[in-house]
Amino acid sequence: TRLPGALRGALVLVFGLLWLQIALGGWVSTNYAVLACTDFPTCQGRWWPDMDLTHGFEIWRDLGVTRAGEPLPFAALTGIHFVHRLNAAVVFVALGWLAWRLWREPALRRTARALALLALWQFVSGLSNVVLDWPLLSAVAHTGGAAALVIVLTGALVGTRSASDSVSPSAVHLSRPIR
User: Fold this and answer.
1) Domain range spanning residue 70?
2) Residue 14 near residue 59, CB atoms below 8 Å
3) For tag attachment on the chain, is the N or C end more exposed, with fewer CB atoms within 10 Å?
4) What is the mean pLDDT of residues 8-23?
5) Is 170 inside a domain boundary?
C-alpha cells in the first residue's frame, strides 16, 4: 500500500518516538525508578513533583549512585519515572492519531486497529505497574506490549514502502569487488 509522503513521514516519526519511549522505559527499569511515582495521574500527589534530572539522566555512572559515588537521590528516580510518563502521553496521543489516520486507508485497517489496541494495552499495563506496586506480570505485559508495537510499526513501514524505496540488485554498482 502506498502512503502519501507526509503520512509515511508521520509513521517514521511515531516509530522514533516509540524507540525513545522504549529507551526511557529501559532507563526506568535499570534504575528501579518504577516505584518513584505510586499514584496516577499525579506523582507523589503532585502534578509536577520535585525532580533531579541532572543525576537521573547522567549516563556515565555506576548503577544506583551518582558519579561521586553517593546513592542516587529519590528526586532523580522521580525524574526518570516522570519523564517516561510524560513521553508516554506523547506516544499515546501519537499512536492514537496514527491509528485514526491509518484507519482511513482500507488496506491498513488491521494495522490501525492493532496500534489502537496496543496503545491501550500499554496504558493499562503501565498504569498497573504503578498502582499495583510493579507486579512481575504487569512488567512483562508492558514489555511485551512495547515489543508488539515495534513489530506492528515495522510491518507497517515495510508494507507501505513504495517501489522507489527498494533497490534492485541490478541497480547496485560496485566500484570494486567485495573480498
Assistant:
1) 5-160
2) no
3) C
4) 97
5) no
Answer whether residue 177 is part of any domain: no
Residue 64 within any structural domain of the chain: yes
CA contacts within 13 A on the Cβ side of 85: 23
Query: Which segment of 2-6, 12-16, 53-57 scores lowest on mean pLDDT?
Result: 2-6
User: What is the rounded average pLDDT of the residues 25-30?
Assistant: 95
What share of the chain has pLDDT > 90, as a percent? 75
Query: To the nearest 10°, the Cα dihedral for 83, 23, 133, 120?
Result: 90
Q: Which three cell numbers stand for residue 163?
A: 517501489
Segment 106-157, tens digit of pLDDT:
999 999 999 999 999 999 999 999 989 878 999 999 999 999 999 999 999 9
152 exposed, middle or buried (CB, 10 Å; 0-12, 13-18, 19+)?
buried
Within a domain: residue 10?
yes
Number of domains in the chain: 1
pTM of the shown model: 0.85
41 cis-preceded (ω within 30 degrees of 0):
yes
Helix (H, G, I), strand (E, B) or coil at 46: strand
CB-facing half-sphere around the CA of 134: CA atoms within 13 A: 10
102/105 Cα distance (integer angstroms): 5
